[in-house]
Amino acid sequence: MKENKNNPENLDNEKVSKVGGVPDATDDKGVDETMGKTPDLKEKRLEADENEVDETEETEAGETEEDVHVGGLTARRAEDGVEELTVENVMEDSFLRYSMSVIIDRALPDVRDGLKPVHRRILYAMYKNGWKAPHATVKSARIVGEVMGKYHPHGDSSIYDAMVNLAQPWKMRYTLVEGQGNFGSMDGDDPAASRYTEARMDKVGAELLSDIEKETVDFRDNFDGTEKEPVVLPAALPNILLNGQMGIAVGMATNIPPHNLGEVVDATVSLIDNPDATLDDLLKHVKGPDFPTGAEVYGGAPMKQAYATGKGSVTIRAIADIEERKNGRFNIVITEVPYGMSKESFIEKVRQLVLDKKMTHIADARDESARGKIRVVVELKKDAYPKKILNQLYKMTDLQTTFHYNVLALVNGIQPRIMGLKEILAEFIKHRQKVIRRRMEYDLRKAKERAHILEGLKIALDNIDEVIKTIRESYDDADKRLMERFGLSEIQAAAILAMQLRRLQGLERDKIEAELQELMAMIAKYEEILADEAKVLAVVKDELLAMKEKYGDKRRSKVFNHELGKFSEEELIPEEESVVLLTAENYIKRVSQTDFHRQNRGGKGKRGMTTKEEDVISQIITANSHDFLYFFTSQGRIFKMKAYEVPQASLTAKGTAAVNLLNMHPDEKITEIIKHSDGIDPETGYLFMATKKGTIKKTETKNYMNVRSNGLITIKLDPGDELKWVKATTGKNDIIISTSAGQAIRFNEEDVRAMGRSAMGVRGIRLRPKDEVVGMDVVTDPKQTLIAVSANGYGKATLVSNFPTHKRGGVGIKVASVTEKTGPIVAVHTLDPEASEVIMMSSLGQAIRVAVKDIPVLGRATQGVRIMRLADDDTVASLGIVLPEDKEEESEEEE
């Protein structure tokens, strides 16, 4: 008959009949991280074996050969006793044994002491040999040999690695082994070989074995039956929460973070005082995980779910400070890292991001950690924005990680179960109740045994002369004579006979009576506690509080009770001053303002943009990367996007076609771009528009609060006309409109009534034949100047006060003298008194940045001076203004 082999205790010792067996494995790893169906297989196998027993009995009743059902499959049993099994049957049986062996005996921790078998065996071997303080450390190879030879029949490397983990302070919140020598590093460096390092049990590790000699836990045979090993340790502390655990079994896995000892003890005491305590009551004490490497922990609903169900997550973020160097540049200094992060891997990742040009503002990354203190420095370039770079590092590297809870542990040493915080603490309290009860039963028994002997000694003391006489007169039966003469027990008589005669004569009555009285009090106390479970729990509570007093420390990880949201794209974009370039053919790009170096007037400039043949630069906008850009098109529509959404490119790149960014018609072009730091504000007042043919229109800004992705209509246009200029106004500003022939008109916008979005507008300036509008600007300050630039690179500034106010619709007055030498006027802009610089671009892509102070202020009818030297076939295409705040920021950087 086949025996039932599904008892977990028999899994390692049994063999599958004739074929199969448990594969030998040497580590604590499996293949899957999800809950499997091993328990179901076990139940199926048990049912199958019961059927097998019944049918085998029928076979023995007289049948010579019969079908036998094994594991739900059919085998043949022949008369000679040879059992024929299918491959499926053997595989099912073998995999069941293997999986149960990995789950119970190797990969999962016991909820009571928080240890896997290999860790438990390492600590027990150290305890048995006295390798704990104050004993000196011993060679790790000796410890490994002791564990492997007596308790753990697997590879020495797996045992040594497990011991090393117990000694690494960056992995263990409270180390259980004290190591001496090279035990590796948090960057993944391997420890020295076991023959070079030494170790002994740490103080907290010793507490897990406290009172084990008092029969507080069960023992079982080791693998060869020559030694005894504990099934579980007494565990004076809830180690499964203090140090956490990670393991992968067959079909299941566990991942438990470490916690703070003081918080866990307080929560346990709270549950002892109030067994009906809710999860919220316990979470008043347990704030969240407490990682040995510190860092910030963001919990919220996922963390609460983890403590309620055993499954959830927290986000861990490094602690990083921004430090300014003497040269005004910045460093990002990381002092605490997420649990399990390698500093070396982080630095390598940063360098790779720089090489891949995914992060362009980092100059260097290095590790300056020393003497146990973490310090990783990321050095930034001159134009970097530290906070934005730090956000990018959080997103793209391990500076921010997620820890996923999967609180799976063995209950009663055999049943894998996913548990919440309350269930874990309840199981630990139950375990400690048993340990305290068994310890007190042991102490009670020992106290009674000693009291029994003392009572015999007291009787001997009361009858000392007769006792001595009886012993002297006896030969081989002194114990029997003492028992008969004085009514002593065999143990009492043996104790009297074991004493030297001179000591028996010198016994002190007071000393015996005092010890006996003390023992009787202890016996009464033990019996009183054992008779009341509440008093047993009180002892558990007192001992936990003593552990907190002895080993409690401050929390290392700072917990925030809210989720850390995902980074928006905007949070990852540095705030930097940019120049947005638009060509007449609607190619657009964004470049850093620092790419334009200031030159004196008359310079040749530098290559600014590669354009298509016959394409020219039409507009330059200086804007912060986080500014809103409002795009107005030739067909009178408006679109909106952030400046950083305009693709960044090199200074010489052609750019991106605007139709790829905005939902425009094929023949539609961007003609005006307005920037605003916070979007169009209805309090600003109005948008004032002008077309190529001199039509103007004023409309309230509130009409453009919500710009759809497919745009909004801003003005109705005559055939052949185009919307070219749009400015934000207050409703009381003066407007200046300039033409290519050098004419300009200034009028007050109050002359123009506000209209709806789809209105056509009114005449702003009367144009002469072949003339067209080249500029429309708003006068905000009487001290402003009007800068006019001609096609051949000439330019000048003229005081706005030289242009008197007229009624709209006139032909205007001269703004500049247009000659064959200067060419037609191509751009006219008003400049604030403190405006710093202008950027000029040519039709062939040359660019120059000129200080405003280098441009002379001249009269209206002059042609100006040479601002930009051009090639024979080149002309000025556009003009951009660098605002005063940009100047201030750059000055600060240069300092």
UniProtKB/TrEMBL annotation:
Belongs to the type II topoisomerase GyrA/ParC subunit family. Residues 1-67 are annotated as: Disordered. Keywords: ATP-binding, Coiled coil, Cytoplasm, DNA-binding, Isomerase, Nucleotide-binding, Topoisomerase. Heterotetramer, composed of two GyrA and two GyrB chains. In the heterotetramer, GyrA contains the active site tyrosine that forms a transient covalent intermediate with DNA, while GyrB binds cofactors and catalyzes ATP hydrolysis. PANTHER family: DNA GYRASE SUBUNIT A, CHLOROPLASTIC_MITOCHONDRIAL, DNA GYRASE/TOPOISOMERASE SUBUNIT A. InterPro entries: GyrA, GyrA/parC_rep, Gyrase/topoIV_suA_C, Topo_IIA-like_dom_sf, Topo_IIA_A/C_ab, Topo_IIA_A_a_sf, Topo_IIA_dom_A, Type_II_DNA_Topoisomerases. Residues 497-529 form a coiled coil. The lineage of its organism: Bacteria, Candidatus Saccharimonadota, Candidatus Nanosyncoccalia, Candidatus Nanosyncoccales, Candidatus Nanosyncoccaceae. PROSITE patterns: TOPO_IIA. Its main location: cytoplasm. GO terms for molecular function: isomerase activity. The active site is at residue 196. Residues 49-66 have a biased composition (Acidic residues). It catalyses: ATP-dependent breakage, passage and rejoining of double-stranded DNA. A type II topoisomerase that negatively supercoils closed circular double-stranded (ds) DNA in an ATP-dependent manner to modulate DNA topology and maintain chromosomes in an underwound state. Negative supercoiling favors strand separation, and DNA replication, transcription, recombination and repair, all of which involve strand separation. Also able to catalyze the interconversion of other topological isomers of dsDNA rings, including catenanes and knotted rings. Type II topoisomerases break and join 2 DNA strands simultaneously in an ATP-dependent manner. It is found in: Cytoplasm. This is DNA gyrase subunit A. Its EC number is 5.6.2.2. Few gyrases are as efficient as E.coli at forming negative supercoils. Not all organisms have 2 type II topoisomerases; in organisms with a single type II topoisomerase this enzyme also has to decatenate newly replicated chromosomes. Residues 1-17, 26-48 have a biased composition (Basic and acidic residues). A motif (GyrA-box) lies at residues 599-605. Pfam families: DNA_gyraseA_C, DNA_topoisoIV. Residues 108-572 form the Topo IIA-type catalytic domain. The gene is gyrA. It comes from the Bacteria.
